[in-house]
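Format notes (please read before filing issues)

Several people have asked whether sequences and structure tokens are stored in separate files. They are not. Every record keeps both together, in the order shown below: the sequence lines, then the token lines. Line labels are part of the format and must not be stripped during preprocessing.
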Amino acid sequence: MRQNAIRRIRSGEALFPGVLGYEDTVLPQLEHAVLAGHDVIFLGERGQAKTRMIRTLSGLLDEYMPIISGSEINDDPFNPISRYAIDLVEEFGDETAIGWVHRDLRFGEKLATPDTSIADLIGEVDPIKVAEGRYLSDELTLHYGLVPRTNRGIFAINELPDLAERIQVGLLNVLEERDVQIRGYKIRLPLDVLLVASANPEDYTNRGRMITPLKDRFGAQIRTHYPLDVETEIEIARQEAQLPNDENVIVPEFMEELISTFTHMARSSPQVNQRSGVSVRLTVANMETLVAAATRRSLRLGETEIVPRVSDLDSLISSTAGKIEIESLEEGRDGEVIDHLLRGAVLTVFKDRFSGEGVRQVVDAFDEDVTASAGDDLPVSAYMDLLEKTPALAAPVAELVGDTGSDGVKASAIELLLEGLHLSKRLNKDSVGGRASYRARA
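Then the structure lines:
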């Protein structure tokens, strides 16, 4: 791994492709750990790409590795450690059969649960092999656990503090002496394995506990974090969201910004439990839900172009409620808190995207008895009619989407403009069901 990491760094290749937002914070620390040959534990809230980084580490292994054919623990042909491999080499010498293992098979992973046993991780006597006639003293009666089976590879334990403390003790030798001992057998398996673990800081200190000697044996402890800016959050959502591969589906940049801004506001809201975190998965799920809501609306209206609008934001309550924990003394206020955060996100994007002069002209037009309707039951043609009848809308819409924006994107821009003017207290809004009517404040 170290040699492959050195080669990639020299050539300017990414060591951990697909991991975004950590270029100047987390990834340099991880590169240091790889170059130093250290075992690593990642500390971070949910949805901070800990598992993705762990799995990406396998890309630093050689694509194929030679082993003694049939070995359960990837015995090195030049340095066998299991009784099976040692006996084969003694019998056949240079004629010992060789197998090849792909790097994907050199990665092992286990989710730590309270019922995980030493047998799962290290190994146990196999009663079937004993029943076949072997003596208990025979090393071949052993059934190797996950850690030995990942010899000459990477083994990952997710949510490490959830392991019972007596099981954590069983990992001490693996991390320090690099060997395992199974039952009462007088054997020593000097393993060549990189151990990587993840933990939630809240679990790390309260619900679960990592024993001090185990913590001391990790060479590197790396703290992860959520995206530091909206732009990175958008980039991650674009990479991770499973959106229809259809040229008729268009998600305007300002709607992507709105979804990501909503997540960032939730991370700083005192009404949201910050100890449990607000995962990037919230942004991804909301992006997918927003496109689904726009798809449903377009199908019902018989339109081919699918473009999310502000009126589709109500659909995000279902995809948000399960991903954040509301801090409230009253029951049933989740919807109110989410709606408040959504309005805050709309207002923030509105202020960032629209300049003052164009907005003032729109407000002046409404002062001259202009009214406008918006809602998920209105077709794009209704917005185009409004744009034609209200010339003042043309400049701010063009400012947002340009002259080449499609009618669906322009309709989405009009909704953002109208809702932003309402939230900034420059237009009144009357809502009935899914339909909204905007008019002058006078």
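For reference, the curators noted about this record: The chain has two domains: 2-223, 230-440. Residues 2-223 form a domain with the Rossmann fold fold (CATH 3.40.50.300).
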